[in-house]
Amino acid sequence: MNVEVPLSGGDVTEGVVRVGDTVRRPVGPHSPAVHGLLRHLERVGFEAPRLLGVDDRGREILSWVPGEAPGRPLPHYAVTEEALVGVARLLRGYHEAVSSYEAPEGAPWDTVASNLDGKPEIIGHCDVTPENVVFRGGRPVALIDFDLARPTTRLYDVVTALRHWAPIADPCDRDGPLYGVDVGRRLRVFCDSYGLDRGARRVLLVAARTRFERSYEAMRFRAEHVGGGWARIWHAGAGPRIRRAQDWLERNWDELDACLN
Ligand SMILES: Nc1ncnc2c1ncn2[C@@H]1O[C@H](COP(=O)(O)OP(=O)(O)O)[C@@H](O)[C@H]1O
Ligand SMILES: [Mg+2]
Questions:
Q1: What local confidence, expressed as pLDDT, does residue 111 receive?
Q2: For residue 21, what are the domain limits?
Q3: Measured in angstroms, how far is the CA atom of residue 206 from the centroid of ligand 1?
Q4: pTM across the whole model
Q5: Is the shortest distance between the CB of 128 and ligand 1 below 6 Å?
Q6: Ligand 2 centre from 79 Cα, in Å?
Q7: Does ligand 1 come within 6 angstroms of the Cβ of 147?
Q8: 11 touches ligand 1 (CB under 6 Å)
Q9: Does 69 fall in a domain?
């Protein structure tokens, strides 16, 4: 008999389980679009869960990616500068891999979520949190959890990753090992490792400001209309956490901007 081991790393999706070398996840309206993306990533050889099918309970069957996704509190290996460099390169690699993907017209991506203005350039991952990056031997090697993937800009993915990995957050909301880090330096290291161009660096903080405002609204909407894990996160204080991060960003704007440009 196959044992089902609950996976709680992400907090949002209820009923994610590991069964042997597979993961079973509930499907939603966005799943057909995500499955097309996963098939593309398999074709071009980018490391991510492989789509193996749908089980008799209607759940998607994905391959288990060997390694570990950091949980909370964050382990030391996830907060080193090497890890930061690795995540930036992984995100760049993902963007290269996905740039050749032509998604079907009208694919049902998750569109509740926030976005930046501007013509979409790629299908972004849009949720590059520590829980969604798999490490092996201390190095980030794969992205998982593509539920929020959708047409967006490269800069949106960069800013979202930096929200979690720099992190662009009030110190009181950071995981212990990230409490006193030099965020300006980490922003620069990430952008250098990703290879972000000068034009994008100049507008990065403005993009972060816009994203915060829109994520606040998107999260509130999800908490009210989707419920489940989203409502749980919201009631556990996600809204005030975003507000504190916004205030921290405004207070430190000039110093951070100087590090980027
Ligand atoms: N294919 C996979 N390979 C390895 N670990 C996985 C995989 N899928 C999920 N996990 C683990 O389970 C956790 C939760 O799964 P995830 O798909 O991210 O769901 P959520 O939507 O709740 O964030 C992840 O943070 C990771 O630790
Ligand atoms: Mg997740």
A1: 80
A2: 5-63
A3: 31
A4: 0.97
A5: no
A6: 18
A7: yes
A8: yes
A9: no
